Amino acid sequence: MKQGLSLRVSQHLALTPQLQQSIRLLQLSTLELGQEVEQMLDENPFLERSDEQAEREEFGLAQADTPVSSGDREQEFAVSNVEHSSTSTSASDNSYEDERTPLTADDGPDWDGDGSTEMAPDDGEWGIEAKARANNLQDDENTDATELARSQESLPSFLHRQALALRLSPEDSAALRFLIESLNDDGYLEESLPELARTLNPADEEALDQLVHHFSVALGLLHSLEPVGVGARNLAECLQLQLRAQLRDCPVEEDIQYELLEVALRICAQPMELLARRDIKRMVQLGVGSDALVREAIACIGRLEPKPGRRFVDVERNIVVPDVLVVPLAANAKNAQMKFRVMLNPEVMPRLRVHDIYANVLRNHRGGKESGGHAALQQRLQEARWFIKNIQQRFDTILRVSTAIVERQKSFFQHGELAMRPLVLREIADELGLHESTISRVTSAKYMATPFGTFELKYFFGSGLGTESGGNASSTAVRALIKQFISAESDKKPLSDNQISEMLKEQGIECARRTVAKYREGLKIAPASLRKAL
User: Fold this and answer.
1) Would 533 disulfide with which of 94, 140, 244, 491, CB 3.0-4.6 Å?
2) Which residues pair with residue 352 across a beta bridge?
């Protein structure tokens, strides 16, 4: 075998730590970004909050409209390809990850920059506009709304408070308390009484029967508490408990109402599939009652509460804070088109800066005895600088994309969702000189406050349906049109999917019946058979 030397030229793309962090910050939501900022403030001593308004970087909004160079665009396309390939190699990388030696200051990520931006010696310039988040919990006058929402009484505590008014033996009181704690969020008792008794590990069958007896007594007491229907084992029993409570409160002289409630009880004793399908003909054949009484009884059942514990559920209330604000501006002339101002929400922008004192101390003590420690601190300082830059670049990109969306969907901001036009990620990407993957990251979990409400940026993108004129209609506008048709329909004769499809064709929109059914289900609208009034 002959040995020799050869020269080979090849291109290799490496994602620098700065670029990786920029990509990761871009796809984070507002809440996740806040958590990332808090973590970085805890880990990096050179990073601190700033109450002063700092100057923006040279690559910020002032450079937002600068054309993207061909080299940068090729790099972005290459980054997208690298990300797709990295998912296939992540499994193999985990196999030898534990064998790696700990990183030292020299081996860690290089935060000295990638050569694209020259670092300034003055650390006082680093920062980003935003207000520092106030601690609402320390101010009684500015109590957090979410904390007030979570302070509502739960279903178990509400039932326990009622049980205190009952004079029960210690055994029955303990059994009732056990059943209350076994309810689910809807107020149902999912497990049977013997199954609940077995969870207490009785000594023998006699002890098991005694536990079941105490649970049976406690279940009757539970059914007498508010809200009516709590402690039911299934939907039929829940409805029957509420109907029996109405029967007890119904005056004797009201024979018609009493008969109606009895028919409703007989309906609930039948399989629930008949009630779900509102199969009135089958119910009349089973001898439940006359056609008119069955119809009225079904309407009476529809006014009951299928989930007694619904109003006690402590639902996590996620308050959406918009990243972008769109404010309409008055037109100068009568026939002039309305203009809109697009701006970032300062409430979601963290105001950060590099700690001046620490940075100056590190600058004045270069070349000390502990050169390794100095290099590690220098790396931390550079990491803080790039973190601030990447956050600023994230918000600049969000603002650029949002501005382009507002320009493309200007009709929506004037007339609402019926005027929405088709829009795909490629259009915005080509206009701004970015990759589609970048637009997808920007529009995910980012929200825009508009005159018609707050929407996710992805809401403004949608496919198009063909029209008779040869143009396209947005799928969002078609959904809004379907909702408008259904809201104006007759309760006696609701519109079928086929009729809605024909009405859309009259408007010049080609939409098949299956597409109408898909959009209707997406809007969570019941079919025509269930929308029909009895």
Assistant:
1) 491
2) 49
Q: At what angle do helices 291-302 and 255-269 cross, to 10 degrees?
A: 80
- Alpha carbon distance 234, 308 (integer Å): 12
Verify cis geometry, omega within 30 degrees of 0, for the bond prior to 194. Answer: no
The three-class DSSP label of residue 59 is: coil
Per-residue b/e over 239-259, b at no fewer than 16 CB within 10 Å? Answer: bbbbbebbeeeeeeeeeeeee
CA angle 165, 168, 173 (to 5 degrees): 95
Which H or E run includes 48? strand 47-49
pTM over 0.70: no
> Nearest 5°: phi and psi at 462?
-165, 155
Q: Which CATH architecture has domain 464-531?
A: Orthogonal Bundle (1.10)
Amino acid found at 339: K
The sheet that has 447-450: what strands, in order across it? 339-344, 324-329, 447-450, 453-456
Residue ranges per structural domain of the chain = 155-223, 235-312, 464-531
Structure tokens at 179: 């059943």
Residues of the chain with pLDDT under 50: 54-66, 78-79, 82, 84-108, 111-143, 145-146, 148-149
